Amino acid sequence: MAAETYSSADFPYDRIALIGAGLIGTSVAHAVRKRAPDTLIAFADNDPATVAELASLFPDNLSGSDPAIAVKDADLVLLCVPVGAIGAVSDAIAPHLKAGATVSDVGSVKMAVLDQLAGKFGPDVHVVAGHPVAGSERSGPSAGFAELFENRYVILTPTEGFHIPALQALTRFWRKLGAMVEVMEPTHHDLVLAITSHLPHLIAYTIVGTAADLEDVTEGEVMKFSAGGFRDFTRIAASDPVMWRDVFLNNKEAVLEVLGRFSEDLSALQRAIRWGEADRLEDWFTRTRTIRQGIVELGQDTDEEDFGRRSKAPVPKPYGD
Amino acid sequence: MAAETYSSADFPYDRIALIGAGLIGTSVAHAVRKRAPDTLIAFADNDPATVAELASLFPDNLSGSDPAIAVKDADLVLLCVPVGAIGAVSDAIAPHLKAGATVSDVGSVKMAVLDQLAGKFGPDVHVVAGHPVAGSERSGPSAGFAELFENRYVILTPTEGFHIPALQALTRFWRKLGAMVEVMEPTHHDLVLAITSHLPHLIAYTIVGTAADLEDVTEGEVMKFSAGGFRDFTRIAASDPVMWRDVFLNNKEAVLEVLGRFSEDLSALQRAIRWGEADRLEDWFTRTRTIRQGIVELGQDTDEEDFGRRSKAPVPKPYGD
Q: Which residue of chain A comes nearest to B307, CA vs CA?
């Protein structure tokens, strides 16, 4: 593919504020720097160490600890904080927003975010909640990179009476960053993500903890023989603990609903193992294959064997006795 | 790393028989071809289509459907069939083994394999069961590749009265193929692998099936938004159904034991979500991070973000509206 050049010409915002500078916030900044280089970015983060890091990561952008200052004159305010912090941040910025500004977020749950934003802003501020379905096991300001959203879906969840031009502008923003945009009801978003993201994370966190606690198997053994399947779970279970704590606490109903379904299915397979029901097991294990093929065809994962990670593995030790 | 050249000079076997030509059997063949090119390989597989494929994949090796013929004069007979087929295959080969031959296998469970092999062979045949902890979501004869065992662990489970030179030779064989060899009690192997491999596969199969069955979420949505975590599970759940059916049926006790532990832990986290126990969730999610670091340090996974698979993903669609 030929190198592409970008300009801010068709970018919907002159100035954006990013509140929270973790993986997502800094990835947005890198992507905007790359694709709309003339856009002004103002960061705010409540961690002084992060603010210091931002100054060296993004020397041409504004960085500080006060969100009220960062949002001044911003056309888009993107809240990139853990879901549990949305309410406090919106209180802090509300009096300082520019008329006509759009407030959005990147949280993995949408109903709880909308509840926290409700009634906080005047009628000349437009709220359109959103969620880029993209991530990584890495967290913190140095984890971000410009390509995080490329070929990934961003779900926007406008609510009753939303401002149509604000939704259109936010859609252009995410597309400019390489993403594909879908619009969805917030409650439906929370159910879909409970199965595609929240439950997988909860299960990965659980099994890695279970393995660490098993008295008859050492942690060294768990690590050595992880190539049999376990290591995939450990990547997910290395994700940001605070972010995920907030996700589960703020999408309780949907998570408990899909967790109930999962537990039923697991019990059925457990019973099939106990009673030696070979056909039931083989049937179940066969039909799950088609889902993966669909994901690969949609470009949401690589088709390479073992995610293509073999070539990235450390150089093997010397062979022989 | 400079290209290495190999010879059969320090290879412990002149002739090996591979019974079963799936991912593991053909990977062994590719690795032997690469690292001990003068060694003679005889394949047997009960699927005529596979036998035909073998003739084109390995034109210089012997391939056929009859294991009794393949094992003739073999110094090592490696059973690479699903665990449930070990008994029938060992009956078929027993009368045809060369005196002094070693019989081994590659099964993911060891007690059930040893039970099936017990008493089948004469005193001049040496049984040393084994398990290369290496795999892939791919299966079938075309899935194999020479590097599958490089920097991976192979667990050997010799039993009382084992033949020491046979164990030493089999150790040299796997090291020659790039693997690291560990010796373990078969019952302990079955417990360790239940947590590092069997339970992760069972859980991945379960959640992918649960997602496919959820009435309120379409399969298309599950696929589109899989980048939130789910897609990692689908890779594991695309593994060979027959092989995994046999693993669960033949390691029933250990799998049910660790599944019980997992279910307890999952219930505890479920309760913490329901009752909003933020600290308990954050504590659990924090301590699981160290396990991943250990796996990376042992060279059992790449340290690259997202397994380094991003660069392998399909080319994104054009940007813009």
A: A309
**Domain-embedded: residue B307:** no
Is residue A317's pLDDT more than 70?
A: no
**Shared-domain flag, residues B170 and B209:** no
Q: How many domains does chain B have?
A: 2
Please check whether residues B114 and B70 belong to one and the same domain: yes
d(CA B225, CA A153): 7
Give the minimum alpha-carbon distance from B67 to chain A in angstroms, rounded to a whole number: 25
Which residues of chain A are within 8 Å of residue B9 when distances are taken between CB atoms? none
| B176 chain-A contacts, CB cut-off 8 A | 319-320
State which residue of chain B sits closest to A172, comparing Cα positions.
B321
| In a shared domain, residues A94 and A166 | yes
> Is the pLDDT at A9 greater than 90, yes or no?
no
Q: What average pLDDT does the structure give for chain A?
A: 92
Cross-chain CB nearest to A261 (options B210, B255, B295): B210
Q: Provide the CATH number for the domain around residue B27.
A: 3.40.50.720
Record: contact A291-B212, CB cut-off 8 A: yes
Last residue of a domain, one of B127, B150, B185: B185
CA dist A128 and A173 (Å) reads 13
Same domain, B175 and B196: no
List, for residues A70-98, the tens digit of each pLDDT value. Answer: 999 999 999 999 999 999 999 999 999 99
Q: Which of B185, B205, B238 is the last residue of a domain?
A: B185
- Which residues, given as ranges, of chain B have pLDDT below 70? 1-4, 309-321
> Are B235 and B179 found together in one domain?
no
Which pLDDT score, from 0 to 100, does residue B300 have? 86
- Mean pLDDT score, A28-38: 96
| Most B-contacting residue of A23, A210, A257, A264 (CB-CB within 10 A), to test interface | A210
Using a CB-CB distance cutoff of 8 angstroms, which residues of chain A are in contact with residue B147?
310
Closest C-alpha to B302, from A237, A136, A220, A310: A310
Which among A259, A286, A300 has CB closest to B270? Answer: A259
- pLDDT over 90, % of chain A: 79
Q: Is residue A4 pLDDT above 70, yes or no?
A: no
**Backbone phi and psi for residue A33, each to the nearest 5 degrees, phi listed first:** -55, -40
A227 with B153: Cβ contact below 8 A? yes
Mean pLDDT of A114-131: 97
- List the single best residue of B5, B240, B266 to mutate versus A (max A Cβ within 10 A): B266
Q: What is the pLDDT of residue B120?
A: 96
- Longest Cα–Cα distance of chain A, Å, equals 75
Asked if A71 and A96 count as a contact pair (C-beta separation under 8 A), the reply is yes
Instruction: Give the H or E element holding residue B127.
Output: strand B126-127
For the segment A186-196, the average pLDDT, to the nearest whole number, is: 97
Nearest Cβ partner for A193 among B150, B228, B313: B228
pLDDT at A167 over 50: yes
How much is the pLDDT for A318?
38
Alpha-carbon distance of B209 to A242, in angstroms, equals 29
A168 lies in the same domain as A209: no
Same domain, A221 and A112: no
Assess whether A165 and A229 both reside in one domain: no
Q: Please tell me the number of Cα atoms within 13 Å of A8 on its side-chain side.
A: 12
B79 domain residue, yes or no: yes
Residue A91 forms part of a structural domain: yes
For residue A270, give the CATH number of its domain: 1.10.3660.10
Which residues does B307 contact at the CB level (< 8 Å), separation at least 6? Answer: A235, A307, A308, A309, A312, B301
Select from A143, A188, A313 the Cβ nearest to the Cβ of B299: A313
**Cβ-nearest to A133 among B227, B237, B307:** B227
- Residue A256 belongs to a domain: yes
Q: Is B155 helix (H, G, I), strand (E, B) or coil?
A: strand
List the domain range (segments joined by +) for residue A201. Answer: 189-276
- Determine which of A266, A277, A286, A303 to mutate to test the interface with B (most B C-beta atoms within 10 Å): A266
* pLDDT score recorded for residue A310: 61
Q: pLDDT: is A297 or A261 the higher one? A: A261
Parallel, antiparallel or unpaired: strands B15-19 and A102-105: unpaired
